[in-house]
Each structure stands twice: as C-alpha cells, then as structure tokens.
Design brief:
By secondary structure, the protein is of the alpha+beta class. It is built from three helices and nine strands. The protein has a single domain, classed as Hypothetical Protein Aq_1857, Chain: A (Sandwich), CATH 2.60.300.12.
C-alpha cells in the first residue's frame, strides 16, 4: 500500500456489493478477485472499470469483506479515497455503484465522473 493510500480516508465495500461479487466470482476458480480502477475516458473525464483478476500487485489496496477481495491500484486509490463501493438492483437495472465524495460531477449513467 502506498503512503498516500495510508493517509487517505478509507474506501469501503458494502455487504450488498460483497454478496454480488461472491456471485460473480463463483465458478471463476480459486483466487478470483474483483479489480476496481479509475481510467481516463467516459463522458465526464474519468470512468470506473471493473475486471476480474487473479493476481495482486505489490502496490494494490486490498479490501476484504465476507470472503471476497477487491483490489484497487495505487493511482486509483487517490481518486477513490473516502468512497463506498455498493451494488444497486432497482427498476432501471442493476450495477455496481461507487459513492465517491471526490467526484464534482458525474454522467447520468453513473459510470463516469470528473474531479
């Protein structure tokens, strides 16, 4: 974990998100983890990326809850400091949602943001 990540507000994972991650990685094989990253692009400047990964990097932040692991790279940690990773399932669809206090604006779909 980087020094910046150690000083930043924590990134949390809700129980609802952990349950959905468990469903996704079930059957993916031993050691499957969800990787969350902030990438350039999207209609607001940055976008969230979600991928499955089976290897942890030395500078990854590791979040664990209810038997699942989420990895966040050191650069993304700075953009996600203080965020909550949640999962919503409502009439308009289901998706992971990041409640990010650093985002000054976001697009209508909630997958991109600006700081």
């Amino acid at each position: 974990m980087t020094e910046t990540a150690e000083l930043a507000p924590p990134i949390t994972l809700t129980a609802r998100a952990a349950r959905q991650i468990a469903k996704i990685i079930d059957g993916e094989g031993e050691g499957a983890m969800l990787r969350v990253a902030v990438q350039g692009g999207g209609c607001s400047g940055f976008q969230y990326g979600f991928t499955l990964d089976d290897s942890k990097q030395d500078d990854d932040l590791v979040l664990e809850r209810d038997g699942v692991t989420v990895l966040i790279d050191a650069v993304s940690v700075n953009y996600l400091a203080g965020s909550e990773i949640d999962y919503t399932d409502d009439l308009i669809g289901s998706a992971f949602k990041i409640n990010n206090p650093n985002a000054t604006s976001s697009c209508g779909c909630g997958t991109s943001f600006s700081v």
